[in-house]
Amino acid sequence: MLGATTSCHYYHNTATHYNSYFLAREGMNKFETELFQAHQDDYNDVLSILIPIDTTVTLTYKEDLDYVITKASRPIKFHKSSDFIDECYLLVGWVRLYKGDYENALTTFKFINSKFQDENSRHAALNALLRMFIETKEEANMNLVLDIIKQQKTPYNKENTKNYHLNLAHYFRNNNFYPEAIKHLRVAADLEDKKIYRSRYYFILGQLHEKIGDINNSYVYYSKSRKISKTNELDFQSDISARSMQPVNFDDQKQQKKIDKYFEKKLKDHNYWDYRDKIYYEKAQFEMRKPDYDKALHFFNESVQVSTTNQTQKGHSYLESGKIYYDQKQDYIKAAAYYDSAVQNFNESVYGFEDIKARSENLQELAKYTAIVEENERLLKLYDMNEEERKEFLEKEIEEEREEIILRQQYAVENEKKKQKPATSSSGSFSNQESKEFYFYNTNAIAQGKAQFLRNWGSRPLEDNWRRSNKMDFNDNQVNLGNQNANNNRRNAQGEKNKEGNEEGENEGDLFADLKSLDDRIAEIPTSDDELAQINTKLGDGVFGLGKTYLYRMKMNDLALENFFRMVKQHPQHEMAHEAAYLIYVICKTDDSCDENVAKNYLISHYPDCLYSKILVNPNYIKETNERELYIEKLYTDAYKFYNQGNYNESDIKLTELFTNYPESDFEIKGRFLRVLLIGRTTKYYKIFKKALEDYLEKYPDSEFDEIAKGMLQEINETRLKNGYIPGRYHEYNITIEE
After folding, report:
1. Which DSSP letter does residue 176 get?
2. 3-class state of residue 205 by DSSP
3. Is the pTM of this model over 0.85?
4. Of 337, 323, 325, which is closest to residue 367 (Cα–Cα)?
5. Could you report how far apart the first and last alpha carbons of the chain are, in Å?
6. Which ranges of 384-457 would DSSP assign to H, the alpha helix?
7. CATH number, domain at 19?
8. What is the CATH number of the domain that holds 627?
9. Model confidence over 614-663: pLDDT tens digits?
């Protein structure tokens, strides 16, 4: 009987281990390998330690995952006594996790941990739970699992220990706790047998050490990664990163030249032609270590210009340039342009994208108000010049803009040349040499020639004697008017033909087409007091906008104060000057660079009628104001109620209190019209009522009761005025003027 049981158990183990479980495990290994290979790494950011579980990606492998779960489920159904059932359940749980079926994955892993005796399977299930809660960012549950793991009496085996540390390294990397990530990843890397993964972990350790400024260890781990790397991509990335992090004495010119020579060699190597953007990027990172920020900016720019298909790499080069202008040079306008370009080249999966985008938006706001300030300052400067000075200033401005356009054109040509991969063959046949040298076969030479022509001569139509300012034809030193007219007609006809036919003579692609003319620039200069006031108002808008941007978006109190002080000094009558004075007071309450009491007294003395001043003088102002407004509303409501009840004397008393104690209140106009109606109800004479209506219309010509009052006035004709008395004191009108 015992032998039969043993044979049966052996059968189930064999059938499971070498059939269904084997196929399921192989299917899972195939899926995870393909998932790893398909993952796109961003080598300018710390690589993901574990491949993120993204259901939009994993569900594209639905058939592979379904195959795994089909094979793994078979032993659970037909070979329940097998020793490999727990491993089958583990595979089922992982399939559910990869599919995003977290609830059933949780149930499966908890079942394994509670129902099976095999410690390795139970530990693997706890690791899987830890991974799931890291991916779903459920830190409370993650900490609960960690507490359970710490209570385990049996030590983890090598595989489970490695996976435990990988999970924690992955968690700390994702949350920017780099020292903790390093601690766990070191353990995991040493336990990893497969070189393809160990080289990756060493590379990530190099990146993590670089992040915390540990250059020496960064170089060590990049070098380790390069020595055992099994892929061309990682070999290149680890090699180039190791060089940029290589320990160097920057006073030793030989060492620097050696590294520069390495980078130059890489740049000339045709095998790395499409990686030149990364080489320039690492070259810039090397310059940042000195630090030489101008050289770094140059190489980041070169990285952008030689970029071919790697948009993310281009985005990082823009981003690093933006950081230099933001943090080191504090040129926020240039930083804005680079951050904007970075956002345009990144996709939302780039780590920290939301923060980069937020800073870009803040800088764009800053650039907008800076442009407003600079443009209106320019116009005020031109306003103060005499005519000769203006012309000289604007002509110089136009010339500088033309030079900039030409330089940009030449720069674009040079950059286009950099992207063209040279022929690898060293042979130079006659035909090849001819095609390179013949001008009109070379588009770059044509573009350069056009730029040079525009620099020297400007934009000119295609015509005879194009260099002459006076283009008349001369014959025997006599002006031949007939020939001149004929030539002019020919040129006009040719110009029309070019315009209609879009031929070569047309000014197509004129570099200066969008350049503002001298007359247009002169027309923008204010010529009247009203125009001057508008310019000053716009300037005030820009200064105040800058102050608020620095305060609320950039969190830079010093620059915010600088602009708010400028606002109250140079634009004290601006509609937002009182708010600028109040924001100075708000900043000074927490900033030692200015005196809170001085700011408070300035606000109260210069803008006593603004709400901020009233609150500072009387902290109960809002409460008292609300109570006052409620009382005013009650006075009017009571007056109207008494009017409807025919108690005209009490109504008049309430209105008198309203007008006497609370002039220019929100109920002033309503109350005045109610007083007119009271006169109509109480006077005996049309003449008195007419005078009351006329006075009301004169004082409040655009009130909400304007049409009603005019209608009443039209009813008082000459016959009624002659009779004098109002029959029934105007009771035919029953006007509603409720709130």
Report:
1. T
2. helix
3. no
4. 337
5. 100
6. 387-419, 430-437, 443-457
7. 1.25.40
8. 1.25.40.10
9. 899 988 878 888 888 899 899 999 999 999 998 988 999 989 988 888 88
| Chain centroid, CA 231 distance in Å | 35
Which residue among 121, 154, 187 closes a domain? 154
Helices in 571-700 by DSSP H: which ranges? 577-588, 596-606, 611-617, 621-645, 648-661, 668-682, 686-699
Asked which of 154, 188, 214 is the last residue of a domain, the reply is 154
Picking from 128, 20, 120, 114, the residue whose alpha carbon sits closest to that of residue 72 is: 20
d(CA 183, CA 208): 10
The DSSP result for 353-379, as a single string, is HHHHHHHHHHHHHHHHHHHHHHHHHHH
Question: What percent of the chain stands above pLDDT 90?
Answer: 44
- Quick check: 324 and 296 in contact, CB under 8 A? yes
Cβ neighbours of residue 480 closer than 8 Å, sequence gap 6 or more: 473, 474
Quick check: is 9 in a domain? yes
Dmax (CA) for the chain in angstroms is 135
Residue with tokens 């709130």, as numbered in its chain:
739
pLDDT digits (tens, 9 = 90+) for 426-444: 444 333 434 444 444 455 5
| Spatial distance between the Cα atoms of 201 and 234, rounded to a whole number of angstroms | 11
Is position 406 within any domain?
Answer: no
In this structure, which long-range contacts are made by residues 369-376, counting pairs with CB atoms below 8 Å and at least 24 apart in sequence?
369/542, 369/543, 369/545, 369/546, 369/549, 370/332, 370/333, 370/542, 370/546, 371/542, 372/538, 372/539, 372/541, 372/542, 372/545, 373/539, 373/542, 373/543, 373/546, 376/535, 376/536, 376/538, 376/539, 376/542
Q: Rg of the Cα trace of the chain?
A: 41
- Residue 671 CA to residue 673 CA, distance in Å, equals 5
User: Residue 476 has which token pair?
Assistant: 């025997």
With respect to residue 333, please indicate whether it lies within any of the assigned structural domains.
no
- ∠ CA 356-362-363, nearest 5°, is 90
The values of phi and psi at residue 51, to 5°, are -70, 120
**Rounded Cα gap, residues 174 and 46, in angstroms:** 9
Residue 692 counted as domain residue: yes
Strand, coil or helix: 280? helix
Which residues neighbour 316 within 8 Å (Cβ) at sequence distance 6 or greater? Answer: 42, 44, 45, 281, 342
What is the extent of the structural domain holding 91? Answer: 1-154
Residues 538-558: what's their mean pLDDT? 94
474: which strand partners?
479
Asked whether the CA dihedral 346, 352, 353, 357 is positive or negative, the reply is negative
Confidence of residue 310 (pLDDT cuts 50, 70, 90): confident
How many structural domains is the chain composed of? 2
d(CA 705, CA 668) in angstroms, rounded, equals: 13
For residue 371, give both structure tokens: 């442009």
Q: What CA–CA distance (Å, rounded) separates 345 from 349?
A: 12
CA-based nearest residue to 568, from 580, 582, 550? 580
